[in-house]
Amino acid sequence: MRVAYLDGLRGIASLQVLALHFLTAFLPALGQSRPELARHAWEGWFIHSPLFYFADGYAAVYLFFLISGAALTYAFSRHPFALPSGVGRRIVRLGVPMAASMLLAFALFALMPNARITAGHLVGDGAWLHLSGPPSLAIRPLLWEVLEGLFFGHLDLPGTLLPHAVAVSFDLTPVAYSFNGPIWTLHIEFAGSILIMLLVALRAGAPRAVYRAIATILVVLLIAHPLGLFVIGHLVAPIMARPTVRRTAPIGIVLFLCGMACASYAAPNWVLALPLQWAAMMNLPADFDALHLQSAAEAMFIFAAVAIGQPLRTLLTTEPVQTAGRLSFSLYLVHFPILLTVACVVFTWTYGAPAASAIAIAAGLAATVGLAYGFERWVDRPSIGLSHRIGCRLVPRAPDAVDGLTSMGSLSSAGPE
Question: What percent of the chain has pLDDT over 70?
Answer without folding.
Answer: 91
